[in-house]
Amino acid sequence: MPSRMCINPIHNKKGILHRSTNATSEDQWAASSCAMDSLYDAELMSETVPVIFDNSKEWYKVLSTSMKLGDRGVAHVAGVSRVELKENNQYSNLMLINRTASPLSWFMECKDRNNRSAIMLPYSFLPSMASKKLREAADKIKALLGDYDAIHVRRGDKIKTRKDRFGVSRTLHPHLDRDTRPEFIRCRIAKWVAPGRTLFIASNERTPGFFSSLSVRYRLAYSSNYSHIIDPVIENNYQLFMIERLILRGAKRFIKTFKEDETDLSLSDDPKKNTKKWQIPVYDGDETC
In the CATH scheme, what is the code of domain 132-268? Predict the structure, then answer.
């Protein structure tokens, strides 16, 4: 794994606050990235699959030895299937196999999501491998929440629109803006979440009090309610998201924005993987419960 992960300042308020126009390229990289071990627990991951970082002595040893061996030590196998890697003898004795085509997609667990047989690790693997301090923070919050349900409400980037040549606004997810508004959420989740339940909400919606109307039926909770636990351990919004993701997974009922598997509960029926077809947003519908 790479020893550092890129953090786009656009998504990281702390990164924006500490930016400097006089910084060197090394300083800029340090400011716009974070140590991978601040996100993931390599030792915990290694219980399933051995993990080393690209700044470790082990990695330099493997890289140096494999380069000296040439074709007998290293192979670049972009586009080669996992099945072929497993069954083809020419790969069995290599020290280093570079399978990832892009350095930005190291975390991809399966290139073809429709071919489940190609998945070596479940999609739940990485989220559960958060660093110890992030797991401990999430555990403290879950203990305070007690018996709770949770929803992840993806708005922001997913509801953006653009105008076509006739000036008509269009979006890739035509029902999402409607489906993720509190009045529609209340009706959608009524059959899954009983009144009076504690409902943890994780969302990228930036409007203050946007979900407040849900409080007439549920006891609402947000990560911001637990800043005394979270603030001392996070340095960027990626770490915050990882804590929220652990909390979401710990809920009695977890309702996602989009359905990813047949058994998932979701706020919207729009497909997560859009078809690149820009459509007119739909806002009508019966939101009475």
Answer: 3.40.50
